[in-house]
Amino acid sequence: MALIAVVLYLVFGVLGFGWRSWRQWRMTGSTGFRGVSGRFGSLEWIAGVGFVAAVVIGVAAPLLQLAGMLFPLEVLLATWIQTTGVVVAVAGIGATVYAQHDMGESWRIGVDPNEATTLVRHGVFAVVRNTIFSAMLVFAAGSVLVAPNPLALAGFALLVAAIELQVRGVEEPYLRTVHDQQYHAYTAAVGRFVPRVGLS
Question: What DSSP letter does each residue of 29-94 carry, written as one string?
């Protein structure tokens, strides 16, 4: 099953980052990739580096398991658990691509403080504010179930922490500054990662 986890990460990378960046470039002339921002050691930098590290660990964990250098956790090796993991990961990929589509030309990887994009409040973003991040976490959780080793679990924990830091410490302050009352009304009505949870 570790090989399936590697393939799932490959598909996620191609669709969620590669294809989407190409599509963004075709629509706007920009790939939408803003990368790791902020000075060394800043909140933005820590969140960005943490996210990149979590993705690298997420890919490395099943590869190392496949190579026999890491061993899966026996308690999670039931066929039904790993099959559920595949279904959840595929759903996460689909949800990520769908949410990226709903974001349209406002889609970005990272934040440029000198750039003001439209506040997207339609489609899935009318239900959850950070739908793309939520979908990524669903994908990552499914992948951990497919190749459930300690490194994969650590990578997932790092991804959760990096996304929380990025959303709460970087993106939300940026959006409050750019969109002010419009964003305040949005956060009061729409949940942060799941519907109706994390209202402010």
Answer: SS--B--S-SSTTSHHHHHHHHHHHHHHHHHHHHHHHHTTSS---GGG--HHHHHHHHHHHHHHHH
